[in-house]
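A quick aside before the break. I want you to see a complete sequence-to-structure record at least once, exactly as it would be stored in a machine-readable document. Don't worry about memorizing anything.
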Amino acid sequence: MESKTKTVLMLIFFLIMENTCDSIKCPDFKNFCTEIKISGGTEKAYADTCTKDTVADFEDRDKLEQFPKGCRPADKWGPKPIQYPTTTVPEGCDSGRWQRNRVLAVIKKIVAMKLNYCHHHAPNWVPPKKDRKTTTDTTGGNANAAGQCSEEGLKIHGDRDRAWKGIDCTHYTSFVYNYAFGCYLVTLTGDQACGPNAAGKILPYGHDDQDKFLPGDLIFIAKKGSAVPLQVSHGIIWTGYKMGSRKEFAEEHLIENMPESQRPAVVKYIEERKKAGKDVYVISDSHNAGPNYRPFAGWYINAFSHARRLINPATILPSTSNNLNFVNNKCENSKAKANNLLKKPVAEVSTQ
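That is the input. The structure line, written in C-alpha cells, reads:
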C-alpha cells in the first residue's frame, strides 16, 4: 500500500512539473536585426584558410539548443529559435567576401538537412501529432497556415516525425542570417521585404540586372497582380552560382526541385537564356518540399518585386533600371499600411 501511495504521489509531482513548464511562455524577439554588425577582417585580402574558416565554428553552434525547450509556444508556429552568437571575420580575410561565403556555407548545411517546407519558426521543431496539418501552398503569404507542412515534402521525406521538421521562406532567410551572424531578421514576409525592421538596403536592380546581385542578397517575390501597396508572398537568397557549374546545380536537378505546376515556365525561361547565350543563376529558398537550390527562372522572374543587400550594402552599384523608384513608392505605402495595422486589435492583424 505504501509503495502504491508513493507511485501515485510521484505521478502527481511529474504532472504538476509538466504543467508548470508548459505554462511558461516561450521567449519572443523584441529587437530584430536591421544591419549586420561584424568586426575583424582585412580589406582586399583573402588568405587560403578563409574559406575553411567560414565553417570553423559550426560544430560549436550545433551544440546549442536551436530553440528553448519546456516552454509554451505563443502559437502553432512553435517556439522561436535562439539568437545565435555573433561572429568575427578572421584576420587576413576580406570582410564582405568572407560573409558572403559564410552565407553560402550555411545554405549548404541547411539544404543537406533535408527539411520540409513548414510554417514553423525553428527548423528542428516537431509539432505535436494533434496539431499536424498539411498544405499544398508553399508560395508564402498564407497567414492561416500556422504549423502546416508541405504535402509534397511529406511524399518525398516520408510521413514520419523528421518529415515534420521544416521552415518556410522568410523564416529560412532569417535563420540563415541568424545562424551565420547572430542576426535575427524579422520573419513576416512583407516586413522583411519593406517594413520598418527590414534589414539592409533596397537594390536599384530589376530581374535583368542579375550580374549585379551578390551572394546573400535577399530577393522578394510579389503576389500575383500585386500593386501599391506592395504585397510580397515569398523571399529567396541569391547564391551567385550558375546552373551547371556543379553536379548539384545540373539543370535536371534544379527543375526537379520546383513544383510541377511551375516547371513549364522554368523550362521556357531556361531555353530563352540559352538561346541568348546567357547564364541561368541559382537561388536558394524554402519552397515546394523544403529548403533547396532552385533556378532563378519562371515564377521568380515573372513575379520579381525587388532585392535587398545586407552584406556591405555600400557595394551597391548604379543601375539604369527604374525599379528603385517604383519599389520605394510601393514600400513607403506598405509601411504606412503596416503602421495602420499596428493600431488595430491583434485579432485583426494577419501574422506569419
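Two observations worth writing down. The longest helix spans residues 2-22. The CA atoms of residues 264 and 298 lie 8 Å apart. We'll return to this after the break.
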